[in-house]
Amino acid sequence: MFRIVVAISGATGAIYGIKFLEEAKKAGIETQLIISDSAKRTIQLETNYQLEDIQKLAGREFSNNDIAAPPASGSYLHQGMVVAPCSMKTLSAIANGYADNLINRAADVTIKERRKLILLVRETPLSPIHLENMLKLSRLGVVIMPPVLSFYNRPRDIEDIIKQTTGRVFDQLGIRNSLVNRWDKVITLA
What we know:
Blueprint: E1 3-8, H1 14-26, E2 30-35, H2 37-46, H3 51-57, E3 60-63, E4 80-86, H4 88-95, H5 102-112, E5 116-121, H6 128-139, E6 143-144, H7 158-172, H8 183-189
Parallel strand pairs: 1-2, 1-4, 2-3, 4-5, 5-6
Helix pairs in contact: 1-7, 4-6
């Protein structure tokens, strides 16, 4: 079974984590969910989703306070971790090995076990501190993937934008998908 740990931190853009869970469920991918307390508030402010509905999308959910949960151990097998969105606080904790909660610990373990870690970092503008933390992690093999808009795919609405980013995350994990409006398809239509 293909298993992905999905964390939703408190940055704006909780919809990216939710859409990943929805599409992973459709694709038959097992997801293990961790939601920070700040993310719970962000979900209320930014979306029409109820927390219970998001939790049902995952195969299993763990409390961010449960530092003894399975994703905190290297012996717990999974094929990667996605933090969507990833706040600058979470980025900093991961970059500096500050594993004070399950999201940070699971990311730390993902790095040490040399598994794929993808961070959809959300902030603008970026400070030198943010950039240094991203560079530090990128040099360790972490995928730094801000959900930047692409226009070659001619998005019609926000849903198209979110699907494109979600599909690109799937690409990074080696998961075949039809969420991405690919460049060669766009060129053919022109």
